[in-house]
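DUF3348 domain-containing protein structure dump, as promised
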Amino acid sequence: MAEARHRTPVPGPAFTRLLARVTGAELPASGPALSGRLGQWFDWNRAVVLSRALDGRLPAPAGDGAPAADDDATAACARAREMQASAIVDEGAAALARVRERCASSGEAPDYAPFRQFHLARQRSMQAATGQLRGRLRDQLAHGPADLARLAEVDAVMELTLSPREQALLSGVPAMLGEHFERLRLAQASTGAGSVPAHTWLDAFSRDMQAVLLAELDVRFQPIQALLAALDPQTLRKT
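structure tokens r here:
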């Protein structure tokens, strides 16, 4: 196999570090301040809505007292996350098996396309599931005291503003993994037929792809964990 390159550790979230390690991407050590980036991403009407929420100029909340994350909502979040994680592992293994079977029957080289389709399908599923959960938790917050109702409105504005940026960035991950697939394939070919078992590199690639998807799942669930914590500070210690 190709000799491993020594790389300077990349600072930042676990997802970013993992993606840099797997794909070999040269990520900048630092970037513009978050406040500066947000200033570029907000259009004026969303900025006005966010300002109103932060200043507390909201209608009176519909309910009295602090709501709690009900058992159904907490269980739904935990169940959805477990289902997504299980699907990443199970469907990833199935995609690997299909590629192996096709190669064995046709004698053709492995193709990245089935892995790409799997990755895109998991991303769409994660986006849909987390969007529904986030909306459900905001509805609970909106019926609480002013501070929690304000948080619900702020989160709604932030999702509308940041989700397109997030999706644009995450949509590039399958292409990056495709380059990783090709590097591993070429490295396997360069070792010679007898030195490494055929397609052993596919196992490594499948593990890498699943690890990246699981890290993305963590990123997508961070706002949900924050909303659960606002409803019930004990929630994060239960999950």
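Residues 85 and 214 are 6 Å apart (CA to CA).
lmk if u need the other ones
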